[in-house]
Amino acid sequence: MCVLVLVTGLIAASPRPDVQAFALGLVVPGGGFLAWAGAENTISILAISLFAISLLAFLLALAIWFATGNILLPLTVWLVTALVAAGAETIWRPALDIVPVAAFLALGLAYGAATIAWRLGIRRRARLNAYLRSLEAPAVAAVPETNTAGDELSHEGLRLMRLLFDRALQPVESFEGFEWIDQFQTAAVRYQLNFMSYALSIAQSVHVPAFHGYFRTAQENLVAKQQDHRIWRYWQLENLWGNLRTSADTIPRDNIMLSGFLAAQIAYHHGASGQRTFDAPGSLVFERPSGERYVYSLPTLIDALARQYKTSEYGLLACEPNWIYPLCNTISASAIRAFDAANGTAHCDAIEDSFRHRLETEFITAGGRFVPFRSSVTGFPAPMIGGAVMQAFPYFFLYAVFPDIAQRQWLVLRRDLTEDGCRRALWPIDVGNYRFSRASSYAATAAAAVELGDNEVADRLLSLLDEECPVTVSDHVANRSNASLWAHSVELIARCGRAGTLRSLVTSPRSSAPSGPFIQEATYPDVLVAKAANANGVLSSVLYPGERSGKKALTIGGLAPNNSYVATGAVGEFRFAADTQGTARFELPVDGRTELQIERTG
Fold it and tell me: Is the pLDDT assigned to residue 146 strictly greater than 50?
């Protein structure tokens, strides 16, 4: 409105054609070119064409702003088109009165449309509330606060997990099998690393809590890969054009798509394994080729996030410069809550009220839908893009922070996820590689359904995934054609998870290594561990050969030094003694599904 008043004043106050054309150019991108057009003007077609080209260029600049956080580009395009129009030698007057009036009219129409949309949303909210009140019993199964660990992972699940291990266990500097498309949007490699790690944490929590070995190596490798300069070098450019700052440090501001996601990656790993590797000062080092280093640890990541939340105008943080996503914030908030639960701190308590209030008032529409993202500069929300997955997937993480909101929103959404409606409701583009496939939509929505205890919807989605994107197996590794690595990772979350798994991991993390026998080391891919759980001092495990049957080496930890133990199961029975460090190493035949139990004798 201020710009329109200024422009109207310029047009009225100055007779100069260049000033007036410039003023029109400030009203709408390319508007200055309309001053060329007139009934007697032979270049009217050119003027209108230049206006159309300017408008398209501005829309493209807006798209780039969304994709990369480059807030300078739309402003630059707008200003340049105004200056070019002002520099024309021949200026005609017809648009001088029409454009400002049209702009005011457009502003009024936009306000009217927003008012109508709000009133329709209120009506829809009333219908949704009536629907929720009509439910005699929750449509979502009761979700336990904790999980019983030790479910056995299927052989098919092991094949899917191998796709992730093959990439996570390669040398840290290698990225073979990752998808390098862009580093600004959803196909960025950092997200592949994040969600591979999230999936392995879920799998370890549910299936193999009494196994360290290559799970720990894979997780540490994935964190180390995040520190590779190729992963985070995008930030200096994005910080420059999004925040007008030159710093290459990825942590302090407007970058929770790295800092928050990485904090969650580490916190989930710590919670699943009981280890605290990245709590140590200086355990995270981001080093530029010039030698400049930014040194952090999980505690300092959490401190940086909590500090930003306390000063945030919206109560939520920008995932990237100028754009606030509820999904990014639910992931970041779950990281803070997990750290608090593990360390007895209270960062979450200090931000919880503001976060909840802003989430419900700024990021849930009057009609009860999550706003996909909102501009922190203009306040404008994005249209409802991305289909049901943009609604569903945040609930997977939100259940660990605000379970009541997550359950309510899921009950609203699941009406769209009927047997006939699933396919229509989900976006046909894989966000992990931009190919035409619903793999990521099916997998991510199924993961949310599993976490919320809605097995009916989860089974429906995973069946559609199998039907539309069938699995092929090569060298004992599962793969879905056209599906991204991100989609495979999220599918593993859906396959391995149980109701409330992430919530349990966040709110009740393990504080130490297993008490009693656990599998300390096994060689990948010689031995695939499908189950490893310790109950009452007894290790129960299920092993598979990775390539071929034969004798496989295992190292068992958590033993009482110099005490005797007995191993039973498919291997028969044999006795062994722990060394002075409480470990024992032996070989045993692994042929197909092989059960192994270990307990202390005497």
Answer: no
**Cis, bond preceding 525 (omega within 30 deg of 0):** yes
Residue 389 above 90 pLDDT?
Answer: no
Class of domain 135-507: mainly alpha
- Residue 544's φ and ψ, nearest 5 degrees, are -130, 150
Fold entry, domain 518-600: Jelly Rolls (2.60.120)
Mind spelling out the 3-state secondary structure of 419-463? Answer: CCCHHHHECCECCCCCCECCHHHHHHHHHHHHHCCCHHHHHHHHH
* Model confidence at 383: pLDDT above 60: yes
Task: Specify whether the CB–CB gap between 519 and 532 falls below 8 A.
Answer: yes
Average pLDDT over residues 98-112: 60
Of 134, 44, 32, nearest in space to 88 by CA: 32
Q: Which of the 8 DSSP states describes residue 134?
A: H
- Cα torsion angle, 483, 486, 487, 488, sign: positive
The two structure tokens encoding residue 154: 């299927």
Burial class (CB in 10 A: 0-12, 13-18, 19+), 220: middle
> pLDDT tens for residues 59-74?
777 776 666 666 677 7
Question: Is the backbone of residue 591 left (phi > 0), alpha (psi -120 to 50) or beta?
Answer: beta
Domain ranges of the chain: 2-108, 135-507, 518-600
Q: Are 398 and 406 in contact (CB under 8 A)?
A: yes
> DSSP secondary-structure letter at 387?
B
pLDDT of 67: 62
